[in-house]
Amino acid sequence: MPGMTVNGRPVEFLMAPETPLLWALRDAANLTGTKYGCGNGDCGACMVHVDGEALRSCLITLAEAEGRFVTTIEGLSRDRSHPVQQAMVAEQAIQCGFCTPGMVMAAAALLKNNSAPSADQIKAAIPNLCRCGVYPRLVRAIERAARVAQRRETISAAPAPGISAEDAARQVPAISPGPAASRSGE
Questions:
Q1: Which residues partner with 113 through β-bridges?
Q2: What value does the mean pLDDT of the chain take?
Q3: For a designed S-S bond to 41, which of 11, 56, 100, 177 qualifies (C-beta 3.0 to 4.6 A apart)?
Q4: Would 8 be classed as within a structural domain?
Q5: Has residue 182 been placed in a domain?
């Protein structure tokens, strides 16, 4: 039974050791922010941190991940307050969103190792493919995230962390039948 720490919690997967980490995260742990894009390491949609390094989870087996620390997009920051997440929204560097989690994970690892990367260093460190072509905005977002992480800039419109089911239920307005509904019985 391969075991590791995922998003700060010890986990043992009842799966074959040769299973790609990607499928254990998505299918067994229900951490679906890690996306399946190509299955051969080309696209980066499945990027996670393994012992702090950005790696493609489709290329790592459970056996190779055993005993290691894995962080997925869900574990990066539960309230979406990580500077990369905030900057991606502020710079409108998200289009369809499919590749976004992998890009965020790659960018977060880059900024952990290089607090002020140049545009060329960003381009070299982010191997992710994006069919929507957000690359210029992605570079701006990572540069901005670096400034935020260094406390040289703030982002006033951080993404909302979402609302609880209880709050959502309270915020749903009462819907009264309109004129069309009252005439439907005629």
A1: none
A2: 87
A3: 56
A4: yes
A5: no
Beta bridge partners of 11: 4
Domain identity same for 129 and 108: yes
Q: 75 is written with which tokens?
A: 């574990």
Residue 184 counted as domain residue: no
Domain count within the chain: 2
Q: Is residue 172 part of a domain?
A: no
Q: Which residues contact 174 (CB under 8 A, 6 or more apart)?
A: none
What range does the domain containing 90 cover? 83-149
Please say if the pLDDT value at position 183 is more than 50: no
Largest CA distance in the chain: 70
Encoding tokens for residue 27?
A: 């299918």
pLDDT tens for 96-152 read 989 999 999 999 999 999 999 999 999 999 999 999 999 999 999 999 999 999 999
